[in-house]
Design goal:
The protein is α+β, with helices and mostly antiparallel strands and about 700 residues long. It contains 25 helices and 18 strands.
Length: about 700
């Protein structure tokens, strides 16, 4: 069968750069799924694009679907014939519906008995006729973070929202144009064709920017786009941008400060370039965090280290007259001048005096203002400080300053600096280092993968207190995440708490001696809400550990209770199981442990009586267990779970001989009870680390 390529370019208004990476993945997934549904599996598919176009290329597609033969089952034979053997209306109706006579129907045997059936041949449709339907389903199925309603509709007449308005479309199957139309109210319809468009402001000699040009293939589209100053390949745009950035870094004698992703900036442009800009040295008096917010978050520029300078990516390649550089500098200076004004104005009032203003900043309609929230957080943070051996006075002071920066002019202008500005103002106004650092980082970490972390012990305490209050207060008024809905980011808050609890021991020598369950209790939501919150935290904790450990290891440790012990302790137990995974002794003992659990099910063993042992193997096991118990107990008390399990694993040969030679369920009741008591003693020794019966041997996984 003849095969041809399918080329599809969706030309639109500029899409947000942050959408593009995910959008291309979704487009590839959707197109591949639709092709498979139409009977075109294992197709060579490429998806790429820029902020003004999405391009799909399928290298080879059969010119038509394969013919299909399918068996259609009709009514049961027992109702298809009457007592005289004549066809009943049920059989005649089934035959008429499928365009055949009743006598041509076959009888097939099924699990449910004999049925009438026929084989129906369906001729495969031409690919050129299928593609418009595929395109419509793909366009409607793309998941945009936000949709734009632009008064457009497809052939079905239904409204067609999209990420941004579509302005042109290339759709070719081989040499043929795939017919497709988007109707737009008050404007010309967008019709598919073979014409693409280049850069909005650049064009080759003899042409004008944005002019149409004809293409016949994917290779030609890429060549022509490059002639018209558009690089379709994302990785090539990244390389060009990196080259331009490196050249300007050398010229400036400085390196760009990390904080802006070159991958993201490469999505902002179709013809990458860059210019080197500067700003007056007076703005160096502003904190670096403020300057970088202006440059990175607002302008997507790269700050240069220790210089009042930046590199601004451009979409024009070169800037011979310096107009783009001057424009970038004007914008940056204006924004920095605003920031300097807010800094000077905010510094006129002590941060601690701003708390009454928080009365006018709503935390939640059912929970009141941020001032009310802080009244809960301060005593909660102080309680946690006492329980964890942190400096209560410093924690109280830091907690009393939290959120006060929400009413400053700087945070009003640059809301992404909340928390950070509180710390910077506290530092500038003479607060102790422990206090301002705690305020500065109390929002951290935001979720599980956030690179940021509280800067000190006090910061860890107030971070937990703030997040915990948010969770407990939200749950107390019935705001609970469900399914994929979590509008207040409560899952991220919970993961932030758990990450601090998990990592603070190693990163801060900050030992939390209270359990998460006790922490939850301090926030004092109603009883039912507390139960839901505890379940929610346990589920989030399982999620955290499931990313690092096998499901059966997590089950084994969680069987002993997840919220009944410090999070870091749960982590050490899982580390121990993972470290011993694959050890022959450990694998064998986990199988034996499961066997012990089955034997002891519904049994009530008493105390071990060594004098009642009958077989040598049961005494050997008891003596070996007694010998290893002191060392294992010491390791367990110190939280050295891997060492404890390794010590207990030396019992394996004694356990093997016991099960080979000893009948546990002996006829003599006293002998049986004594052997059951020995097994219970064995189970309790191992069970202090995890429930090993949950471990799945490697061959059974």
């Amino acid at each position: 069968m003849k095969r041809s390529a399918f080329l599809w370019e969706i030309g639109c208004e500029e899409l947000p750069a942050r959408w593009l990476s995910g959008l291309r993945r979704q487009l590839e997934k959707k197109v591949r799924s639709e092709l498979e549904a139409l009977g075109f599996p294992e197709t060579e598919l490429v998806v790429d694009g820029t902020l003004r176009r999405l391009v799909v290329h399928v290298a080879k597609l059969d010119e038509a679907q394969a013919d299909r033969v399918e068996q259609i089952t009709g009514p049961p034979l027992k109702i298809a014939r009457d007592a005289d053997g004549a066809w009943t209306p049920a059989a005649i109706g089934f035959a008429r519906k499928n365009g055949v006579s009743a006598d041509s129907l076959a009888i097939v045997e099924t699990d449910k008995g004999a049925y009438l059936a026929l084989e129906k041949k369906t001729k495969g449709r031409k690919t050129i006729d299928l593609l418009p339907e595929l395109m419509a389903r793909v366009l409607r199925g793309l998941p945009f973070p936000k949709f734009m309603h632009w008064d457009a509709s497809l052939e079905d007449g239904k409204p067609f929202p999209f990420g941004r308005p579509i302005r042109w479309m290339v759709a070719l199957y081989g040499a043929q144009v795939v017919p497709f139309v988007i109707d737009v109210v008050g404007s010309k319809s967008v019709k598919s064709g073979r014409h693409s468009r280049g850069h909005r402001f650049l064009a080759p000699k003899g042409s004008r920017p944005g002019a149409r040009f004809s293409v016949t293939s994917y290779a030609e589209l890429k060549r022509e786009l490059k002639k018209h100053y558009v690089i379709l390949d994302t990785s090539e745009r990244r390389k060009r941008l990196e080259k331009a950035l490196a050249k300007l870094e050398t010229k400036a004698g400085s390196e760009r400060v990390l904080g802006l992703e070159a991958d993201l900036v490469a999505e902002l442009v179709e013809w990458p370039g860059a210019v080197l800009g500067t700003y007056p040295e007076e703005f160096l008096n502003l904190p670096e965090e403020v300057r970088h917010t202006v440059l990175v978050h607002h302008q997507h520029y790269f700050p240069l280290a220790q210089l009042p300078a930046f590199i601004a990516p451009t979409n024009m390649g070169t800037d011979p007259k310096g107009n783009m550089r001057k424009g970038a500098e004007r914008v940056v200076v204006a924004r920095l001048r605003d920031a300097l004004f807010f800094w000077d104005d905010d510094m006129k009032k002590p941060l601690s005096d701003r708390e009454p203003e928080l009365e006018g900043v709503l935390f939640h309609a059912k929970l009141g203002s941020y001032r009310e929230k802080k009244k809960r957080v301060v005593p909660l943070a102080a309680t946690i400080a006492v329980r964890t051996g942190s400096r209560e006075s410093l924690v109280r002071r830091a907690a009393s300053l939290l959120k006060n920066d929400l009413v400053t002019g700087m945070v009003g202008e640059f809301p992404e600096l909340q928390g950070i500005m509180g710390g910077l103002y506290a530092r500038a106004q003479g607060e102790p280092e422990s206090v301002w650092k705690a305020v500065y980082s109390h929002y951290d970490p935001v979720g599980l993968d956030d690179e940021r972390f509280p800067l000190n012990r006090e910061g860890a305490v107030v971070s937990i207190a703030d997040k915990l209050d948010t969770l407990a207060s939200m749950f107390s008024v019935g705001i609970v995440p469900t399914g994929s809905r979590d509008p207040f980011g409560l899952r991220r808050q919970a993961l932030g708490i758990l990450r601090v609890l998990l990592e603070s021991e190693s990163r801060l020598s900050f030992s939390i001696d209270i359990t998460p369950e006790e922490l939850l209790g301090m926030a004092l939501p109603p009883g039912e809400a507390l139960d839901k919150l505890a379940d929610f935290m346990a589920e989030r904790l399982r999620f955290v550990f499931s990313r690092r450990y096998r499901y059966d290891e997590v089950n084994a440790v969680f069987a002993l209770g997840a919220l009944d012990r410090p999070v870091s302790d749960v982590g050490r137990r899982l580390e121990a199981l993972a470290a011993l995974r694959g050890s022959g002794d450990f694998e064998a003992l986990s199988v034996a442990f499961k066997r012990v659990g089955n034997i002891l099910s519904d049994q009530e063993p008493g105390e071990v009586a060594p004098a009642d042992f009958v077989e040598a193997e049961e005494r050997e096991l008891y003596d070996a267990l007694e010998a290893v118990a002191p060392e294992a107990d010491a390791f367990l008390a110190a939280g050295r779970y891997e060492s404890a399990l390794r010590s207990l694993s030396t019992l394996r040969p004694h356990v093997d001989r016991f099960f080979d030679e000893v009948l546990v369920m002996a006829e003599d009741a006293s002998v049986r009870r004594n052997r059951l008591a020995l097994l219970e003693r064995l189970r309790s020794s191992f069970g202090r680390v995890a429930d090993l019966s949950e471990i799945v041997p490697a061959g059974d996984a």
